[in-house]
Structure to design on (83 residues):
């Protein structure tokens, strides 16, 4: 059984700066906090045109300079490629 609750206040800290997710659909699903990674990537300086969602594989791909990060739903490991 899946339990979903919309989170009232969710904050993430990156390099000392607080990112507030109150304006998004942050959710707590089965005791895990889910936030949109697009907002995190944007805060890291990655523009929207360099963020791709692959719905078939449920993977988000973000590119900045020569670095590419892939995160897949259900996979506990991220993939990072440089150069």
């Amino acid at each position: 059984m899946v339990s979903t609750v919309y989170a009232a206040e969710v904050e993430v800290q990156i390099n000392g700066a607080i990112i507030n997710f109150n304006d998004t659909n942050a959710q707590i699903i089965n005791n895990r906090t889910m936030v949109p990674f697009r907002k995190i990537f944007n805060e890291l300086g990655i523009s929207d045109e360099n963020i791709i969602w692959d719905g078939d594989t449920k993977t988000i791909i973000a590119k900045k300079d020569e670095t590419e990060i892939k995160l897949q739903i259900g996979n506990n490991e991220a993939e990072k490629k440089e150069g």
Notes: Residues 37-43 form the longest helix (7 residues). Residues 7 and 64 are 30 Å apart (CA to CA). The beta strands are 4-6, 11-14, 17-20, 27-29, 32-34, 51-54, 59-64, 67-72, 79-82. The two ends are 43 Å apart (CA to CA).
